[in-house]
Amino acid sequence: MLKPKPANQNCSHRQLSRFAAINSKKTVTWLTLALCLTLTATESVSAASKFDQGTAAYKGGDYVKAAAFFQDAYRADNKDVNSLYYLALCHHQLRNWSGAKQIYRSICGSFPSSPAATRSREALKLLEQPAAAATAASPNGATTSNTTANDSQSAEQDPELASLPDEAHFYFTKNHHNHMEVDIYVNGHPVKAAFDTGANAFFYKDQLKAAGVDVNNAVAGGTTKGWAGNTVQTQRMPASIRLGTLTRTINIFMEETTTGLGQNLIGQDFVKGYQYEIDDKGNRVDLKKISNNGGKDRIDPLYDIPCELEGKRDIVTIDINGRKSKAFLDTGSSKTIVDPATAKSLGLEPSGETMHWRGIGGDTEMQIAYGTVRIGPLVRENFPILIGGHIGCCVGQDLMEGWRCKVDRGRKLLRFFH
Q1: Where are the beta strands (DSSP E) in 229-361?
Q2: What percent of the chain is modeled with pLDDT above 90?
Q3: DSSP of 148-213
Q4: What letter does residue 29 receive in the DSSP assignment?
Q5: What is the pTM of this model?
Q6: Are 169 and 277 within 8 A, CB to CB?
């Protein structure tokens, strides 16, 4: 939801997540497209080394360099489906659709029963959808309401939700502001946006017009505010939104011209009725219709923490310097932020460093404090926290970076995965 301007400060982060064992001594983080694969014990040292280098380059966003390493790793061990799968993902990230599809098909043919083949088939379904699918609306053409108390209701209770698939997914890329950037279609027209769980569906009218979207049927949509606290007048209209494998019709809200943040946002209105799992390393979000799962799965008190849907925000309790505060999960904020009143209650003291912050409604000045932050299994020491704004407390991308987690609305939990 927010985008910082460049500033001179040192706010380093740690990469804490580790998902898949390469061998008994070395572990790397990887799980693109929500996939954990264990390398075989028989692969060569050379292949393993190239794979390590590839995953490091992939994590750094250098997909061209990563592709070269994964290709070398596969040449050294042509039974290593993991390297081949990652090579396909590099082409996918580089938007080389034909190259990605060719490798996905090769995986399905040569390793048909592997988990990589399962995910490759899913990727092929997405890449091979006809262009006409981009303009498809929800079958009943229904629109969702702006703010209701039933955002977590089941498909049986919501006819619009019942017409949608039980599961869906989409991919994202991290831009230079650490926002989860996605490619969406608004009434069949391609538009860039950020996946923002701290927002509903906020767009800039001039950007939609430039993309070819007809906005002539928009009506007054009320006002909204960002961290700066300035009131922004909006218009609203129903629109067909396609993101990944899910298309639904929702009300979108628009500011007249591109000011402040300058980035379109898609969030809670789009995922209404679904629980969502974010794989930060795999650049994938999986959606599944809400279910309480019969209460049969085991709850781990360390990795599963209470998470309540209040209005349209997923609320958890975080610990800062031994004091607790409610906070909402905000994938649209690159930083973790508390307002001045919350900072005072948590005993946070500004360090003297500041950051100029840009969001909906304009700019504001943020102070920087440092503290120990705990949420479930995640602990960050000497962690930079921004103080400012008027919204309360949000958990930003910097705090959750590197983790795979799921907002399980059926069980009312935020669930972390090893």
Answers
A1: 231-243, 246-255, 265-267, 274-279, 284-289, 304-306, 308-310, 313-320, 323-329, 337-338, 350-359
A2: 38
A3: -S-TT--GGG-HHHHTS-SEEEEE-EE-TT--EEEEEEETTEEEEEEEETT-SEEEEHHHHHHTT-
A4: -
A5: 0.56
A6: no
